[in-house]
């Protein structure tokens, strides 16, 4: 499998993040860009050596090996005017709420993968939810997974679960950030300056995740390791239970997933 040329339709934050990750993983890849904002086109050309094909967008789908589709959902119908008579490229869509069948009907191809990243792709740590067309080729899968690994960790899921993945991961990074901020505020209230509290909480989260992965134990079992009878930790856990902490998280994910389901075309 070789990726020589990658197209990007929509060079916003996530489009550029994917291009940057691909360039890092595959330094010899050439880029083609379709973007209506001239400043973004200039950045793509200057920073990544991309060819501006905005005036001839159909070329991207016939000349590139893989095309990142990163336009906003409300702009997706513009893709219909870009479709060539025959699409050669693998379509790698990060357009929220847009099912695989839309791209199959628009471009007449089955070489399609639908992807849900999040902004942790900027540091190559994003969970990447991926749903392939049922008849996509093995070459398509190989290319798409290589691109996903350039910016994070791929998780293959059925397309029907894409809204759930959006609620858990695509939106979930906001809940984690809220948790980090809340814990840092708590440290500040207890007497540790906010900046130092935040660094401590970041180390705490990193260490907790590493320990759970290393031991491969259920979080509830691990909780018993640190809750001594009549100790400090059980008092904090009691406060979390009183505030329905887990139920709040479940409701947040469910609401985001339900909203994502509403967007499904």
UniProtKB/TrEMBL annotation:
InterPro entries per record: 6-PGluconate_DH-like_C_sf (IPR008927), NAD(P)-bd_dom_sf (IPR036291), P5C_Rdtase_cat_N (IPR028939), P5CR_dimer (IPR029036), Pyrroline-COOH_reductase (IPR000304)
Record field: catalytic activity: L-proline + NAD(+) = (S)-1-pyrroline-5-carboxylate + NADH + 2 H(+); L-proline + NADP(+) = (S)-1-pyrroline-5-carboxylate + NADPH + 2 H(+)
Gene Ontology cellular component annotations, sorted alphabetically: cytoplasm
Keyword annotations: Amino-acid biosynthesis, Cytoplasm, NADP, Oxidoreductase, Proline biosynthesis
Superkingdom of the source species: Bacteria
Pathway this chain belongs to: Amino-acid biosynthesis; L-proline biosynthesis; L-proline from L-glutamate 5-semialdehyde: step 1/1
Residue ranges occupied by any Pyrroline-5-carboxylate reductase dimerisation domain in the UniProt entry: 159-262
Keyword Amino-acid biosynthesis recorded: yes
Example of a GO biological process term: L-proline biosynthetic process
Domain Pyrroline-5-carboxylate reductase catalytic N-terminal: start-end pairs: 5-96
EC number: 1.5.1.2
Residues annotated for NADP(+) binding in this entry: 70-73
The keyword Phosphoprotein belongs to this UniProt entry's keyword annotation: no
Protein family membership: Belongs to the pyrroline-5-carboxylate reductase family.
Listed name of the protein: Pyrroline-5-carboxylate reductase
Species in which this protein is naturally found: Winmispira thermophila (strain ATCC 700085 / DSM 6578 / Z-1203)
Gene: proC
């Amino acid at each position: 499998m070789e990726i020589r040329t990658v197209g990007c339709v929509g060079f916003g934050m996530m489009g550029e993040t994917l291009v940057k990750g691909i360039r890092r993983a595959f330094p010899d890849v050439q880029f083609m860009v379709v973007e209506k904002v001239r400043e973004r086109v200039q950045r793509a050309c200057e920073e990544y050596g991309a060819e501006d094909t905005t005036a001839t967008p159909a070329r991207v789908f016939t000349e590139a090996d893989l095309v990142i589709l990163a336009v906003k959902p409300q702009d997706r119908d513009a893709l219909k005017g870009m479709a060539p008579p025959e699409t050669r490229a693998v379509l790698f869509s990060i357009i929220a709420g847009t099912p695989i069948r839309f791209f199959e009907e628009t471009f007449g191809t089955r070489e399609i993968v639908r992807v849900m990243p999040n902004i942790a792709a900027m540091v190559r740590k994003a969970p990447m939810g991926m749903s392939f067309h049922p008849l996509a080729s093995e070459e398509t899968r190989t290319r798409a997974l290589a691109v996903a690994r350039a910016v994070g960790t791929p998780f293959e899921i059925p397309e029907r679960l894409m809204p759930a993945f959006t609620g858990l991961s695509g939106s979930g990074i906001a809940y984690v950030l809220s948790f980090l901020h809340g814990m840092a505020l708590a440290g500040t209230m207890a007497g540790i300056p906010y900046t130092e509290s935040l660094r401590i909480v970041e180390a705490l989260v990193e260490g907790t995740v590493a320990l759970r992965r290393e031991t491969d134990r259920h979080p509830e079992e691990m909780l018993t390791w640190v809750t001594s009878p009549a100790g400090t930790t059980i008092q904090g856990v009691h406060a979390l239970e009183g505030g329905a902490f887990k139920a709040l998280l479940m409701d947040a994910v469910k609401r985001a997933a339900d909203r994502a389901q509403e967007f499904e075309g």
